[in-house]
Amino acid sequence: MSNEKKKIMPDLIRIKLNSKKIEREVVDSEHPLKFYAGRALSSKIIADEVPPLSDPLGPDNKMIFACGFLSGTTAPNSGRISIGAKSPLTKGIKESNVGGRTPALLVRNNIRALVLEEQSPEWVIIKVSDGNVEILDGKKYVGLNNYKLTKTILDEYGSKVGAFMIATGGELQFANSSVASIDMEGYPSRHAGRGGLGSVMGSKKVKAIVVISPSQSLMQYANQEAFKPVASTWFKALNIANKETKHVFGTPGCLLEMNEMHGLPTQNYRRGQFKDAEKIGGEAVHELIVKNKGKYGLACSPGCAIQCSNMILDSEGTHITSSFEYETIGLLGSNLLISDLEKIAQMDKLCDDFGIDTIETGSCLGVLMDAGKIEWGDADRCIELIEGLREKKSESLDLGLGVYELGMKLGHSRIPHVKHQAFPSYEPRSLKAPSITFVTGPMGADHTAGDVSGENPNKSEGKVAISKEKQIHTMIVDSFGICYFVGANSETTAKLSKLVSARYGDTWDKNLDEWTDWAKSCIIMERDFNVASGLAATDTLPKFMLEEKLEEAPFHWDFNPDEIAHYWDDFN
To answer: Rounded to whole angstroms, how far apart are CA atoms 563 and 503?
Structure first.
């Protein structure tokens, strides 16, 4: 039986929200998008079909939910999906990826991507079931935040369904709004948080996309027997390597290391070390979990070999939050001089419930503190301010502006951002490799597009090359639907190449150079869209970071501006 008769390649579904039409594109060997998936597919559709100067919240923008080449397979950590659109935050191209149970369910329905086009005149939900897509009335769900909306969806459609959804942040079209994905335990804790993509979904009046697993998976392999041993061996190796690290301490396990390297944002990026870091580090999070009988070592999506997620309970055994991450603890903790883990966890849950990015929100709170609007370390006031979104209080609504617009409204100059997107929890002046990625990456300040790796992280020598390599291989893992914790490097790309050939057939058998050239072309495509949108090909740090050293250490931005300006030259 030929690959096309076996229906190897999942379909692309275009959802015309104004005309209520569903168009199915069969992706075969002749389809122009055959060799695109995940981030690459999302960015390709945006670059080809969205006018660069269009309004991100207008009808010309498109929102893409793109599964990776290996999403939903038995490859380890292959439960990711890329969500993309023109960003209302950066005004450029945007991809934010997320796990949870939903991406794999889309592939089981033999769908590679959903493309939301036009704008619906009334609120709707999208239902995916048995490979079919329907547009249903969604008015009764409007006003529900993510926790109540999740319960409603699971009650109506079954406890095992998945969903992508928006809450207050998306409905009100906040620049920092997220798209939530139901996690493996049934909580809305997994978020495509960066870039304000929830507001694009809100502008299209799509409240949720509900995905129901078919009774039998519609996904097929070209050569499953060749796929299994490579996937199985890799899964076991990843599981063993992370058993005593990320499995136990999760992403907060790196916090003390970041603090030691002067890389932990503290007091709105004045310092890279927090005196109370031990109170909020991975060991402290683990102790809190064990003390209150929470859970650690959870998978964020089906087939996760690393299992770095967690569940935080209070002393009464009541759920506070899930997926309590390093980025969240850094921006809502040390950045604000807050060391009470339970209160940081409460803020995390509120952000998840209202559908707003914890990184952007933590940065907004830091600017409010810096401007004298909140006392440093006042966790209760921060909780009160986020909670005020429930009643749409004006001071709380300001959190939805994003850190750049909030800083401008306050007349405050100390705004930690690139392309109007808040820095993640890495101090750019001390951690040289990620700082290069922040200023050159098409997405703005994005921690998932580059790594902290490399010897002497506080030294600038060699870090431009590290950033380039990481951006190339991260494009590959993002496009394959793989969590970048497997390692974005040439060794991983070689494994992925074997797996994708077994998944789709011999025509996919590319060597390392071919895959890296493909990834470079995808990054250049993103960069060119940004330039056409009015953004620079590369960017720079905010003025205060160019002028100031860290208060506690002699680290400063010491890269040659010409080297940054010509960063992409050898990609063409």
So the answer is: 40
Residue 465 tokens, joined: 């090359």
- 215 burial type by CB count under 10 A (0-12 exposed, 13-18 middle, 19+ buried): exposed
Residues whose CB is less than 8 angstroms from the CB of residue 452 and which lie 6 or more positions away in sequence, other chains included: 258, 263, 426, 431, 433, 434
- Is residue 212 very low, low, confident or very high in pLDDT (cuts 50, 70, 90)? very high
Q: Are 63 and 42 in contact (CB under 8 A)?
A: no
Looking at residue 432, its amino acid is K
pLDDT number for residue 538: 85
For 84, counting Cβ atoms within 10 Å of its Cβ (0-12 exposed, 13-18 middle, 19+ buried), the class is: buried
User: What would the mean pLDDT of 541-559 be, rounded to a whole number?
Assistant: 95
Report, in angstroms and rounded to the nearest whole number, the Rg of the chain calculated over CA atoms.
22
Q: How distant, in Å, are the alpha carbons of 290, 366, 384, 423, 500 from that of 378?
A: 26, 11, 10, 21, 50
**Beta carbons within 8 Å of 117's beta carbon, 6+ residues apart:** 14, 15, 16, 17, 62
- Spell out the domains of the chain, with CATH numbers in brackets: 11-211 (3.60.9.10)
Q: If we measure between CA atoms, which residue out of 139, 101, 230 comes closest to residue 500?
A: 230
Which are the contacts of 355, defined by CB distance < 8 A and separation ≥ 6?
145, 146, 165, 166, 167, 168, 169, 170, 177, 178, 179, 180, 191, 198
Report the SS3 class of residue 120. Answer: coil
Q: Which of 306, 321, 313, 261 is nearest to 287 (CA)?
A: 313
401 three-state secondary structure? helix
Show the tokens assigned to 334: 């040390």
What does the alpha-carbon distance between residue 516 and residue 513 come to, in Å, rounded to a whole number? 5
Local confidence band at 3 (pLDDT 50, 70, 90 cut-offs)? very low
- Average pLDDT estimate for 306-332: 96
> Can you tell me whether residue 105 is helix, strand or coil?
helix
Mean pLDDT, residues 335-354: 98
| β pairing state of 11-16 and 421-422 | unpaired
Residues 6+ apart with CB under 8 A from 171: 142, 143, 202, 207
Which pLDDT does position 447 carry in this prediction?
Answer: 87
Residues 6+ away with beta carbon under 8 Å from 111: 10, 11, 12, 13, 67, 128, 131, 133
Contact residues for 554 (Cβ-Cβ < 8 A; gap 6+): none
